[in-house]
Amino acid sequence: MELFGLAIVVVIIIMATIFVLIFSFNKAPSEGRKEFIESRQSSAFINTMLKVNVDEPDCTGILMSDLIRLCVQSPPANCGNTDSCDVAEDVIREILGKTLEVWNKDNYYFTISRSSDTDSPIRYFGTICQGDKSSEEYHIPGTTPAIAKLDICR
Amino acid sequence: MTGKSQLQIGEIVAVLVVFFMMSLIGFVVYFSIIRGEVQDLTENAKSLGSVGVVKIALSLPELQCSENNVVRESCFDKAKIELAKEDPAPVKAYPNGNLIFKEPSNYYFDLFGFSTIQVKQVYPDPNPPNAVWTIYDNNIYGTPPTAQGSGFQSNIPIIIFDPGTRENYFGVLTVISYSR
Predict the structure, then answer these.
(1) In this structure, which of A53, A124, B69, B109 has its CB flanked by the most CB atoms within 10 Å?
(2) CA–CA min distance B91, chain A (Å)
(3) Domain that holds residue A140
């Protein structure tokens, strides 16, 4: 009879050990650093990009934020002899190609839209995030207010 | 009678042996789990340490932009970065690189430890192309800085302000923190 009781105790202990091991191995690793860096990248990217001085043929010296203000007007204004939206798109695409796309972050979605109609972005880059994302947006005040938004998908 | 008592003693001994074996297995499993958790905590501390280096690098007064004594956030002054070009004898020289804090003195080692900090201009294209300023380099692996071995690399967009032309460029601050 004692042996029967002992066998039951052994079985219970083995089952408890299995549950503990399953719990330990399935614990998700901490991602504090990754979340901080992604959050910082999102905000720093937009903040930096909007303060950059454009250096394109026929459109030089203007701030990106001013270029976007010209772009969101209806109809869009020109920068020099070139459509401001096209210039902004070229600059943003160049910057994205040397930054987020190089850092193995093909999963991003960057949009420029009028504040009054954020569902229809004037220009967009990347693909819409399906799951979790780190998101930052920047409001550009002006005659036609605009919003620049960056989502980094996780 | 003697046989019966011997059987009882044998049962007790068997129970004790099984008990001690179970205890031993329990201790082995427990310490394995604890060791795994300690390794996770160590890795987490290292990754958060790299975050600390990034934050310090972004707030270095030796490189920060300021206007009318007001510091601009996430902005490096290009003139301050290029001061390294005047240095006649850098300790280390990398192609297209200028080492500013040319030796890992105790002061900067206390701040940055084993890490490499670089600034690169992304837009507009710099002259020369692919120019990289190496601000600090204390690579424990002893080779030109790359994200190799055990390390955490962080890339943060920053403004590079040119005080001559008063223009802002798009730059990237790269911090590689090494761990043994």
Answers:
(1) A53
(2) 30
(3) 33-153
